[in-house]
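Researcher: I'm comparing several assemblies side by side, and this is the next one on my list. It has 229 residues spread over two chains. Same procedure as the others: predict the full complex and return the structure.
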Amino acid sequence: AQKITQTQPGMFVQEKEAVTLDCTYDTSDQSYGLFWYKQPSSGEMIFLIYQGSYDEQNATEGRYSLNFQKARKSANLVISASQLGDSAMYFCAMRGFNGANSKLTFGKGITLSVRP
Amino acid sequence: DGGITQSPKYLFRKEGQNVTLSCEQNLNHDAMYWYRQDPGQGLRLIYYSQIVNDFQKGDIAEGYSVSREKKESFPLTVTSAQKNPTAFYLCASTLSGEYNEQFFGPGTRLTVL
């Protein structure tokens, strides 16, 4: 079984500053992937970034980077130079690579508000 | 443009009625998924299908049914047996392979009156 924990209350950040959104996970799979999604108020889920468990380097995608600490089972999302359009809910998710099962397990999400 | 479409965007249903939510993708993805999202909550998996004519129950399948007769289509029926169906429903798809992200449709907001 897999579990994703996102426990931060609503987060606030000043425009142009960086912010870290926390995610911890638990799994018995040896190989797995971690994903972050953004959900604006419109409701669609937007894929942001992916990190494989065997990737030695932290993933980066533009202003998004993933601070992956395997021993601590954490996969925090870092957003640099926050913009007003970053205000949304952010979900951490994982998938175990055990052959037959391609399900994603999601956390409960974190609400981020960017202040001008 | 390739993508996932869900219809309708908003749906109202009377108690005791079955209703079917549409999900179509033209991404040539093998696997498709249905999730339910309640206010302030994460996504919970209802059903998923990795190939045509085959599907598996997710974590909260009771009161729901699906079919996968075509690769492009994965409709979800919310039956009268679902005791609390008011929620936001999201459909997703992905290519086979462990490293591929899921792409999501715009969602259907179902309200039971």
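Model: For your comparison table: The two ends of chain A are 41 Å apart (CA to CA).
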